[in-house]
Amino acid sequence: MGSTEPRPTNTRRTPGRLLFLFAFHAALSGAFIVAYLTGDEDTYAMHQFAGYTALAALAVRLLAGVLMPVGPLRLPRPSQAATLDWLRRVASGDARAWGQRSPLLAWMALALLAVVGAAALSGAVADVFVPMEKLHEALGEFSLPVVLAHVALVVALLGLKKVAGWRARSNIRHEVIAP
Ligand code: HEM
Ligand code: HEM
């Protein structure tokens, strides 16, 4: 497609779609943190409320992704080839790869949706089918390192982007100073 042609409307990052993603992220992360901290018997009512809120947020996100399979709301579709290529370019010091959107984000989003989704869904099952509790507790515990790895990756990619920006600016300065 030529660069002067307008993008199809369903692929656009409209304010409404970005707001939806922002609201989804806020609801899920808030509910996740509360659910994780209240898994104990004494705080069960709060755990139940936060857990079902997380489950509802994930269900709405899944529905939006199914209804809008292109554009910012589409569900993550990681590509192994793109990821390997990006990692190779990052390792060889290609500053453009450092600054561009990383294909690792799609793997990260998929892992988060799957693991947090499994934790929330198994909790709902355990609510009516007690033998499921052990599996739910294991999935709940496992979801924390996945979420922490998510935050670490977001921060690391932001750092990489910043370094790429500094390098680009200092290269321009050298070109301007050099005769
Ligand atoms: C300091 C805390 C956090 C920060 C800075 C953060 C930041 C981000 C950012 C920047 C993205 C978008 C990545 C992209 O461009 O594709 C993202 C996606 C995501 N985050 Fe977080 N996050 C945080 C905490 C959490 C928590 C606690 C959860 C709980 C489960 C969470 C779940 C997700 C999910 C599921 C996605 C994928 C969204 C989607 O594709 O629909 N995040 N996060
Ligand atoms: C993302 C959502 C959720 C997370 C991260 C999560 C996490 C946890 C964790 C870590 C535990 C173990 C706590 C401990 O060992 O002290 C636990 C226990 C439990 N959770 Fe969840 N949970 C979630 C959603 C739900 C939902 C939706 C329900 C449905 C009501 C639920 C029901 C339970 C039950 C019945 C237990 C056992 C409580 C007990 O020991 O008596 N969870 N959860």
UniProtKB/TrEMBL annotation:
Spans through the membrane: 18-37, 49-70, 104-130, 142-160
Keyword Transmembrane helix included in the entry's annotation: yes
UniProt entry tagged with the keyword Ribosomal protein: no
GO cellular component terms, semicolon-separated: membrane
SUPFAM superfamilies xrefs: Transmembrane di-heme cytochromes
UniProt KW keywords: Membrane, Plasmid, Transmembrane, Transmembrane helix
GO BP: respiratory electron transport chain
Coiled coil: none
Protein name: Cytochrome b
